[in-house]
Amino acid sequence: MDAIRIEGGKPLVGEIVIGGAKNAALPLMAAGLLTDEPLTLTNMPELADITTMGNLLRQLGMRIDQSALGAGADIAEAGATGRTMTLRTEKIASVTAPYDLVRRMRASVLVLGPLVARHGEAKVSLPGGCAIGTRPVDLHLKALEALGAKIELKQGYVHATVAKRLKGAQIIFPKITVGGTENVLMAASLAEGETVIENAAREPEITNLAECLNAMGAKITGLGSGTLRVTGVEKLHAARVPVVPDRIETGTYAIAAAITRGSLKLKGTRYDLLKAVFDSMKQAGVEITETPDGIVVSAKNGLKGVDVMTEPFPGFPTDMQAQWMALMATADGASMITETIFENRFMHVPELTRFGADVNVHGTSAIVRGKTKLSGAPVMATDLRASVSLVLAGLAASGETLVNRVYHLDRGYERLEQKLEACGATIERVGGG
Ligand code: EPZ
Asked: How far is CA 61 from CA 29, 64, 91, in A?
């Protein structure tokens, strides 16, 4: 198994191009099931999760054609590099998302809404627990039931069926759910009549999906708000849509600049996608400037500890919590980090302490007592964002760090080592970790 070896302690200086968001690209790909016409997605990232989703969608009958990285049209349209992917599902060939794929990538559950809306049937394996929490899909299922789907659970699979068309309904989510909102948006677009989604997730990836569905002929209003209104249509059609920049990749490299007390220009991304994180970084003493094509992040020693609490968008994202903890481990003074989205998302804490970080967990909060110098260590991570927090700590730490289980990183960070190396990091992938 591959590992990443880092020789840390050097300030990063340079420019990094931010790719399209994984968590926007995955639901956009699922939306390709809703029409027999082509859906073209530009600014697509090249990641293991995108390949996994592609494999699942091909099994369901989708044809996927993709252009090379950095195609000219992408740069012109999205201001960034990335692939263009054209998806076409003339016929649904299978309605089953098998356990083996869903287990590996929970976002597979996003095919549920599109399949039942277009084809009247879906059989999707229940994802089971995962490293950051129990992550049930009960809210997806209740919402689809409200739209008229019959839901049965058999042998680990959700079997959703509807005799004719789904019917619009009022859906009030008792808890904000990103994937649940996405599944309902897609299903309601082809339902009969109006659906109102209350307490909808407001993440930029949701807005990207709603814009894509509208470009395909759907009628969705309230984009960016907690109430989405969907007037169902009989058919959706071809569209061409850019994937929004990855705000978590943006934030991760912003922390890379800050934790190494360096200066990075992040190109092809936007401040408003990650305001809560940038505001906290500014409070800590990091300098952040907006430019016409991105953001410049610079830091010097003497950063202060700042408390954060994870919340749904526009709050501080749970997907930035581990990276924030690594940064706070190098700040002067204490900070409290409270996780409110997932119940088990402090798995990086024991690994960060191997660098010498001083972190104590009390229930859903972690107290970090910062110190300026971390020292490199062999470490191992349990999920994508935890892994990258260890890379960040390794970049700041003196001496050698070996991060094991890098396959987690490949799920969500495109060419991570190359991007960091180009800014002065000593980092390489080695076999046998
Ligand atoms: C999305 O997961 C992201 N994944 C996650 O990113 C992200 O951490 C999360 O949203 C929160 O921002 C994708 O977009 C592919 P939720 P999702 O439904 O949709 C509970 C990463 O590292 N819940 O908003 O699965 C759930 O257990 C990943 O890129 C229910 O109880 O998250 C959690 O506590 C990790 N019942 C909370 O809601 C349900 O039916 C929010 O989950 C659904 C969710």
From this structure: 13, 10, 6
